[in-house]
Amino acid sequence: MRLLRTSTAVVAAATAVAGLALLAAPAQAAVNPVYQGVGMPASGSCADVVTDASVNLSGVPGTGWTKSWAKWANGGAGGDVCVRTLVYVANTKSWAVAK
Questions:
Q1: Taking the domains of the chain in order of start, what are their residue ranges?
Q2: Full-model pTM
Q3: Of 3, 4, 9, 65, which one has the greatest count of Cβ atoms within 10 A?
Q4: Tens of pLDDT, residue by residue, the chain (99 residues)
Q5: For the CA atoms of the chain, what is the radius of gyration?
């Protein structure tokens, strides 16, 4: 199973107060979405994707996969794959499948 993941970026905001520049971290650091892609199951249906804990961040279920095409599939020859995007939900401090 091949997993593609974006990096996490933290952004700081500079604020000028009475001629002084202050560097302040935001209340909630931004967390980039995580893009995941796996090879198409032999059945040809993304509903049949079986994932393990290495893909299901923080207990995200193995659902939400949609059909796509990617160059990395089939040893670089390209082909059908199943993809999904996970987003971090700050108020629950957990990951969820993007809608």
A1: 13-97
A2: 0.66
A3: 65
A4: 445 444 333 333 333 334 444 444 445 568 999 999 999 999 999 999 988 777 887 788 889 999 999 999 999 999 999 999 999 999 999 999 998
A5: 18
